[in-house]
Amino acid sequence: MTTSTAFHGASLELRNLTLAYGPIEVLRNVSLSIEPGTTTCIIGPSGSGKSTLLRGINRLHEPKNGDVLLAGRSVLKDKPDALRLRIGMVFQHFNLFPDHSALENVALAPWKVKGRPKAEAMEIARQRLAEVGLAQRADHRPRDLSGGQQQRVAIARALAMEPEVMLFDEATSALDPELVKGVLTLMAELCQRGMTMVVVTHEMGFARRVADQVVFMDEGEIVEAGTPEQIFERPQSARLQRFLSEVL
Ligand SMILES: Nc1ncnc2c1ncn2[C@@H]1O[C@H](COP(=O)(O)OP(=O)(O)OP(=O)(O)O)[C@@H](O)[C@H]1O
Ligand SMILES: [Mg+2]
């Protein structure tokens, strides 16, 4: 890594968060505290509500009940667009602009969304790309990058907005196995530099090694939350024990 800007991760607090699709509640009364600069990994079976939880945090999905506090203040008080400048999100599929270079993909957000002068946005983009190890690939189009490199561009793009929290939804699931490690290493670095991260992942090794807190969800509820040691070495509920026996 060429540089290591420190981040100023914010705290997050979920209070009795309930999210529904129409009449069906897929997340019920979820409460969770996340300290600034820590990493929380969310694990659980398919359909348990992990992605919905992330979408509730940045209001891609409006809560039916409850609240989310970002740095102690309700996210419902911000306009959703303003909120998404403060909470970056990285998905399984990178959604880069195919006709723009890696550098332009990263620069577009600070330039067009944040209104920074173009030259300054390009400078920020160069810096962020260097931090994710892609200084030499700045002029490549997405199709000329590997999946892992594209995902690192997507992470650089989110970081260019200087977010206070980063949400990752299975950011490595679409990658070939040999590319996963580079992206996970980058995510672990962000954590060390003080970013607040909420990471939905199937990578139990990553959760065990990097997480400050692991949250196990099932059927729209948090069943257990604790340190990696508590969750992986001393699971309490039959549901978590069964889940771990299937994935480990
Ligand atoms: N747009 C939608 N409309 C209706 N129901 C939905 C919608 N999106 C998700 N659901 C339902 O909400 C529940 C939670 O889905 P969610 O995508 O949050 O699960 P997940 O834990 O992320 O699963 P996976 O590990 O497969 O990604 C599921 O029962 C799902 O079918
Ligand atoms: Mg999901």
Question: Secondary-structure map with pairings?
Answer:
Layout: E1 12-21, E2 24-34, E3 39-43, H1 50-57, E4 65-70, E5 73-74, H2 80-86, E6 87-90, H3 102-113, H4 118-131, H5 147-159, E7 165-169, H6 177-192, E8 196-200, H7 204-210, E9 213-218, E10 221-226, H8 228-233, H9 238-247
Parallel strand pairs: 3-8, 3-9, 6-7, 7-8
Antiparallel strand pairs: 1-2, 1-4, 4-5, 9-10
The structure holds adenosine-5'-triphosphate (ATP) and magnesium ion.
Residues 21, 26, 44, 46-52 line the site of adenosine-5'-triphosphate.
Family: Belongs to the ABC transporter superfamily. Drug exporter-2 (TC 3.A.1.117) family.
Membrane topology: Peripheral membrane protein
Main location: membrane
Describe this protein's structure.
The chain is of the alpha/beta class and 248 residues long. It has a domain at 12-98 and 164-247: Rossmann fold (3-Layer(aba) Sandwich), CATH 3.40.50. It has nine helices and ten strands. The protein has helices at residues 50-57, 80-86, 102-113, 118-131, 147-159, 177-192, 204-210, 228-233, 238-247, and strands at residues 12-21, 24-34, 39-43, 65-70, 73-74, 87-90, 165-169, 196-200, 213-218, 221-226. The protein has a six-stranded mixed sheet with strand order 6-7-8-3-9-10, with helices on both faces. The protein has a four-stranded antiparallel sheet with strand order 2-1-4-5, covered by helices on one side. Helix 3 (102-113) runs parallel beside helix 5, helix 4 packs across helix 5 and helix 5 (147-159) runs parallel beside helix 6. Bound molecules: adenosine-5'-triphosphate and magnesium ion (MG). Magnesium ion binds next to helix 1. Residues 21, 26, 44, 46-52 line the site of adenosine-5'-triphosphate (ATP). It is found in: Cell inner membrane. Residues 12-244 form the ABC transporter domain. One of its GO terms (cellular component) is plasma membrane. Keywords: Amino-acid transport, ATP-binding, Cell membrane, Membrane, Nucleotide-binding, Transport.
